[in-house]
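Key result, reporting period 2: structure in, sequence out.
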């Protein structure tokens, strides 16, 4: 298939996906319009084959509210999958032992055509689950990056055979690496060296840079430690794109507030304001603080996730940073916590600064230097345009600056 035809199909998918950003129960909705027959040639007796008889997708009568299983998004994404070579027949997939459960499905060890892989199985029982699954497949299918979960293929036969096939990553999650089984009453993880922590945070930032610089940009909207997996070499891979959205100016107003996980959520998302990729930067900042501390966000505050989120939305709460953290890293974290999204750095800037810091850490005597000098800290603050938190050596809780009245909540990607 020519690249122009594939691009046409991708644009069709994007148009249909955007039109379905707010599921509707209306039978006139374009998203949920039922296609009762598919002109795939005559079946037995000469009649046209229905969608149900072709794939067992829905019962003949769709009055039970299952039209979201056969709307145009499925066929559009199948077309892309067929043209790109990643659409998989579920009969070729073998499901093995369960690896874990997440917000949007259960992951199993599996195999396909002799290859070992991870199979995420999603049960589609309502429109929101269909939308989440389709978005995750669409996002991963267009990304190829060393710090993104390696996508192999997908099965698109709802409601029973919705599989996401990815490379099996045996290193567990970043949550395991940071905390062990402490939350389940088990042993915690060993104390990690600063250089290892920076390498982990840097790898996640690189994966997020790939999303930020995609065309159009992809918002993850649920970045957290449990959504980062480690490969056999211990390298982080950003995963779980179930809440991801492509960001375009015309669709910015349709982005849903309070999307994601409260402890990692940006203040503008909590306040139901418009937002862009800088909301992911804030989430990365929370994760960065978690990596530096090796403690769960806001651990020890004895408040519920909702209470923490409300305090963050009121610009009264930010994660704390260990007191022995080099000031250059305190500056990086503080820049990510800026109340005004436009004041936060891009992931490209974060990657550059962490790479520079890690190089200086390696070259310093004893491997512990870099980032502690006043000149290094001032340089980073000038780069970020940030002069709040971390100005004093003893200030390890980045403090949000006052929001300017009337300032727009969303700014362009700079």
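The corresponding designed sequence is given below.
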């Amino acid at each position: 298939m020519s690249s122009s035809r594939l691009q046409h199909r991708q644009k069709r998918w994007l148009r249909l996906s955007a039109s379905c950003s707010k599921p509707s129960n209306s039978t006139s909705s374009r998203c949920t319009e039922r296609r009762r027959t598919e002109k795939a040639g005559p079946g037995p007796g000469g009649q046209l084959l229905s969608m149900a008889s072709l794939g067992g997708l829905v019962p003949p009568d769709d009055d039970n509210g299952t039209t979201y299983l056969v709307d145009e998004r499925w066929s559009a994404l199948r077309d892309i999958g067929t043209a790109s070579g990643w659409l998989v027949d579920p009969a070729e997939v073998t499901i093995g032992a369960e690896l874990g459960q997440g917000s949007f499905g259960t992951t199993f060890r599996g195999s396909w055509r002799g290859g070992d892989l991870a199979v995420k199985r999603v049960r589609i029982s309502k429109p929101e689950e269909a939308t989440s699954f389709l978005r995750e497949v669409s996002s991963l299918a267009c990304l190829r990056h060393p710090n993104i979960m390696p996508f192999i293929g997908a099965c698109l036969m709802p409601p029973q055979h919705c599989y996401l096939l990815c490379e099996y990553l045996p290193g567990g999650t970043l949550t395991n690496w940071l905390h062990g089984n402490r939350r389940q009453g088990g042993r915690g993880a060993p104390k990690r060296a600063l250089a290892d922590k920076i390498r982990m945070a840097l790898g996640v930032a690189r994966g997020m840079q790939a999303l930020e610089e995609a065309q159009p940009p992809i918002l993850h909207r649920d970045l957290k430690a449990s959504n980062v997996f480690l490969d056999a070499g211990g390298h982080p891979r950003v995963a779980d794109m179930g809440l991801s959205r492509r960001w375009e100016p015309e669709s910015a107003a349709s982005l849903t507030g309070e999307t994601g996980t409260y402890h990692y959520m940006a203040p503008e998302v909590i306040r139901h304001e418009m937002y862009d990729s800088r909301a992911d930067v804030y989430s990365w900042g929370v994760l960065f603080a978690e990596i530096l501390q090796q403690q769960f966000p806001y651990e020890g505050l004895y408040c519920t996730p909702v209470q923490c989120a409300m305090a963050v939305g009121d610009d009264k709460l930010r994660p704390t940073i260990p007191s022995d953290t080099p000031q250059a890293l305190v500056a990086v974290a503080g820049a990510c916590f800026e109340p005004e999204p436009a004041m936060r750095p891009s992931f490209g800037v974060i990657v550059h600064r962490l790479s520079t810091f890690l190089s200086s850490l390696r070259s310093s005597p004893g491997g512990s230097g870099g980032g502690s000098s006043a000149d290094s800290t001032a340089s980073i603050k000038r780069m970020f345009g940030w002069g709040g938190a971390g100005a004093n050596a003893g200030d390890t809780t980045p403090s949000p600056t006052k929001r300017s009245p009337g300032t727009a909540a969303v700014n362009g990607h700079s």
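Residues 21-63, 368-395, 401-414 have pLDDT under 50 and may be disordered. The first helix runs from residue 3 to 19. This case is discussed further under Risks and Mitigation.
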